[in-house]
Amino acid sequence: MQANQQPPSADSGTQPRGIGGRGTGSQVLAFLVFLGASALVAGMGSLATFNNVNGWYAGADKAPWSPPNWVFGPVWTVLYIAMAVAAWLVWRRRAEKSGVALAVYAVQLVLNLLWTPSFFGLYPVLGTPALWIAFAIIVALAVAVAVTVMYFGPISRAAGLLMLPYLSWIVFASSLNLWAALNN
Known about the structure:
Number of helices: 6
Number of strands: 0
Distance between the termini: 80 Å
């Protein structure tokens, strides 16, 4: 090797590097993992919903401000995609608190997963107490999402902002859950 040549570096490969030194391939894979996690939670939740939305829930006393059932699917689809993008943006930054932020994100995702079967699936078995259990879960979910926003925002402003519609929807859904618990 001549004196003016430098040895090849680890970054000299053909794969472009993104934010935080992560290659395009790993970024695409990570995005697909976050999207897949959201899709898994959505899919598992829909199992409890499909079996009960036309069952006990069809005749339930619902809040006067409840939207028609067809609204929930499109809204949740957009929210789950936004959640996945937000988590991916935080992951890409490799910030000091990204690990903690993503751990809090995982907690809220688990709480999200628990709410639907609690609300829709347990009611035929437990009756009104199931709605109160679901209400406790959705309140914990709202807190977890708010904490997620607080962690995401300083790492990626866009990620924090992407989580705000989700937080708003959870608060709205909490009001629907509370009405159902008080009136069924």
